[in-house]
Amino acid sequence: MHLEETSLQLLKDSLKQLDNGFAALPPAAENTAPTYDPRLTAVMNEVATKLQDNYPYFHPLYAGQMLKPPHPIARAAYALATWINPNNHALDGGRASSALEKEAVAQIAAMFGWREHLGHLCGGGTMANLEALWVAGQLHFGKKILASDQSHYTHKRISAVLQLPFAHVPTDNRGRMDTSALEKMLAAGDVGCVVATEGTTGTGSVDPLPEILRLRERYGFRLHVDAAYGGYFTLASNLTAETRASFELIGRADSIVIDPHKHGLQPYGCGCVLFRDPQVGAIYKHESPYTYFTSSELHLGEISLECSRPGASAVALWATQRLLPLVRGGEFAGMLEASRDAAVQFAERLANDARWVLPFAPELDIVVWAPRAKTIAEISALSQRIFDAAAKQNLYLALIRVPIKFFLAQHNLQASATDTVLCLRSVLMKPEHRDWLDRIWTILSRVADGVLSR
Ligand SMILES: Cc1ncc(COP(=O)(O)O)c(C=O)c1O
């Protein structure tokens, strides 16, 4: 069996404990005595068969996109909560799970050094960034949002949804925001919010917060940190000094987005937005005659744009953080350090091998690299062939199109500034990737020899 089954046992045991809490209720026949219906088994087998049409995201040989399996405790806790199916919009719909959400979110805020904050879970990074930029737009109405040209596409799109002007800030040769270019744009005086990405989606590059914060002192913009992917690396002890300097300053932002469904071991549907100033809650203020009846305590729907939300997400996150607290030197931090080690070691092998070109060392756990060749067209074609051939050997990589400027220092290429090249990418976000590196390397080498010799 390749798939873990621990969560099934956990679920079975905890379901009994949950049930005990409702012992005073009279039995409801349809719940307590379900009749066996063979159609259920048939449909579930059909579902399982259909789900086989997936890359094996759970396996260490899946070293492609930003996908990581949830922890068994998260799976079990999420499933357990569905027996109640709480709705974290209001305390009326999810009392316990709302309390767990507040605790779990406070623990995330504390990871960034925030004792006070306003924050909540939401559907994911896009929804979380939408809320952060919405608040920025409410506070600096009509002013521009800036994010780097390597930021997630969501920022440009969200700005359009919010009808806020948006512009990209150019990046340097390592995919980080170019702060000289940023300063020129700020000088125009029409910027309301700068988005700093601490871990870009494509290359894991980290925008330089020390310089960006210096510019904030001078130009006075709102700073939003998109740490949807990278945020948890705050706990890792093996970042370079330069990257660490930026992570140490995340807490100076006005708002932060971090996705527990990326590096936080959660099933999809779990993003988190945090605001440093709890007063921004006033911006969310609205009346809801339907739901806010039972208490004067905060209902999470009063401080979030989404209405119904799965309480199960909060339950799973709380359980995971209970088991694996968000502390430096802890077991969870060790998992991130293992992923980062895997990326560093993989990058070193690539850099020391004449078949490959590594544009820059990874800042977090994403490695981007390309086969050595004479033209951009050749590099792109070879990347595609290696990607396809690796998948046939059960090694699943990703492809990414990046600006050619990332490669110009290492590659002697004729190119214009706007050219892009297709290259290979691995998000080594499972801690097991470190132990599997030799096997990954062996398969990659074999595949590359086959493709490059043709
Ligand atoms: C930096 C960053 N921001 C935002 C997002 C969007 O998050 P989601 O896919 O959860 O909506 C991503 C997704 O990869 C990301 O990496």
Question: How would you describe this protein?
Answer:
- The mean pLDDT is 94.
- The protein starts with 5 loop residues before the first helix and ends with a helix.
- It contains 14 helices and eleven strands.
- It has helices at residues 6-20, 29-32, 38-51, 72-82, 95-111, 125-139, 154-161, 179-186, 209-219, 241-247, 311-323, 331-351, 376-392, 437-452, and strands at 118-122, 144-148, 166-169, 191-197, 222-226, 255-258, 271-275, 356-357, 366-371, 398-403, 420-427.
- The chain has 454 residues and is of the alpha/beta class.
- A seven-stranded mixed sheet has the order 1-7-6-5-4-2-3, sandwiched between helices. Strands 8-9-11-10 form a four-stranded antiparallel sheet.
- The radius of gyration is 24 Å and the shape is globular.
- Helix 4 (72-82) packs antiparallel against helix 11.
- Helix content is 39%, strand content 13%.
- The structure holds pyridoxal-5'-phosphate.
- Pyridoxal-5'-phosphate binds next to helix 6.
What's a quick, concise take on this entry?
With 454 residues, the chain is of the alpha/beta class. It is built from 14 helices and eleven strands.
Task: Pick out its properties.
single chain, 454 residues, alpha/beta, 4-stranded antiparallel sheet, 14 helices, 39% helix, 13% strand, globular, binds pyridoxal-5'-phosphate
Describe the protein's topology.
Layout lengths: L5 H15 L8 H4 L5 H14 L20 H11 L12 H17 L6 E5 L2 H15 L4 E5 L5 H8 L4 E4 L9 H8 L4 E7 L11 H11 L2 E5 L14 H7 L7 E4 L12 E5 L35 H13 L7 H21 L4 E2 L8 E6 L4 H17 L5 E6 L16 E8 L9 H16 L2
Parallel strand pairs: 2-3, 2-4, 4-5, 5-6
Antiparallel strand pairs: 1-7, 6-7, 8-9, 9-11, 10-11
Helix pairs in contact: 1-4, 4-11, 5-11, 6-7, 8-9, 13-14
